[in-house]
Amino acid sequence: MRGKTLAFIGDSVARNQMESLLCLLWQASLQVEVPNERGNKRIHRFYFRSTSTTIVRVWSSWLVHQTPEAIDFAPEGVTKLHLDSPYENFMEFIPTFDVVVLSSGHWFAKRSVYVLNNEIVGGQLWWPDKSREAKINNIEAFGVSVETIVASMATHPNFTGLTILRTYSPDHYEGGAWNSGGSCTGTRPLEPEQLVKNDYTDIMHEKQMTGFHRGIQKKSNKSKFVMMDITEVFSYRYDGHPGPFRTLSPDGKPRTRMQDCLHWCMPGPIDTWNELVLEIIRREYEGKRSSSS
């Protein structure tokens, strides 16, 4: 990765993974190197002078175009997701990235309106027109969004890099959601017989895989695509979340009753994701893998 750029694009789990990699790279040499940091709300860059390597974070909650403006019977304010259009804030930077790691999924549980071909086709926690049924739900919308972003990168005339789609990151809330008393109090990885099947995680993972494969079928450029499937194996790691310790007071006690059972501790399981990313990069640049898989 000397002289190259690795970009994490997506939600807060993408940021979590990027921060993990920064921590690893800071301590990768005999002398700890703090990267030069610069950026804004659209794109954040961390430059390591010793290797001329740049790590980038681009925030994009859904990876598709979003707007607050009113459309048809959807009023101004509620987020409109144009599922067939990629998020333009990062597409303009795509040609400058050598490796891209995509992360999305969890924001499809949030309130939003789904738009296809400029027509409202569904919504999450929003559907005021009770006289007719929505055409797609949030899970189906997620699958469409994955196909859209993968196809957009696979057909971009100036993108020749490697795209790694990391699959849906499992959360481990028990007894409620993040804002209703949910908790994760594990202290060690689950044994196979202890794993409780999560139907929502399974179907989100399935839709993501389908969208990925449909997207790369449209490939017309020289870029490469790899799916990094972490969903099932990290379902066993309910011990790896910050839980009540995400935000601490000066005396080391939790500041809030809300637990974080979505993001990952550092050091912790998420560091393994970056070991996998670097192994994929090594194999791809050494030509040990096919152009798509």
From TrEMBL:
Q: Give the residue spans that cross the bilayer.
A: none
Q: Which Pfam families match?
A: PC-Esterase (PF13839)
Entries under InterPro entries matching the protein? TBL, TBL_C
Give every Trichome birefringence-like C-terminal domain span: 1-279
What does the record give under GO molecular function?
O-acetyltransferase activity
Q: Which GO terms describe its cellular component?
A: Golgi apparatus
What PANTHER family does the record point to?
A: PROTEIN TRICHOME BIREFRINGENCE-LIKE 18 (PTHR32285:SF18), PROTEIN TRICHOME BIREFRINGENCE-LIKE 9-RELATED (PTHR32285)
Family label:
Belongs to the PC-esterase family. TBL subfamily.
The identity of this protein, by name, is: Trichome birefringence-like C-terminal domain-containing protein
Protein species of origin: Linum tenue
